[in-house]
Amino acid sequence: MRFLCLLVVFVFAAAQQTDKPDKLALRKQIAEMKVKAFEMQTQIELLEKELHDVEDAEANQPIVAPGAKMAVKVRCQGHTRDGKRCVRNAEAGSRFCWQHKSKR
Prior knowledge:
Blueprint: H1 2-19, H2 23-59, H3 98-101
């Protein structure tokens, strides 16, 4: 009888241990999700910056009467390697300069 009670306690204890998730696996899963969240936040920030630039370009486009020919200088919407806005003027009829036009 004593052996049977010990066996039941042992089986119950073993069942409880297998139901618990592994702490190391949980920590690894949390770390992976944090990396994914950081990558997604970075992508969101880049897209928001690009959207802001496009909205600025649309807001700064001049209103030209039909048939009127007007040369207007528009700043290039491209970005340099360090993330700053290009300082060149865009080509006529485009939002980008000669260098950034080929990258779009």
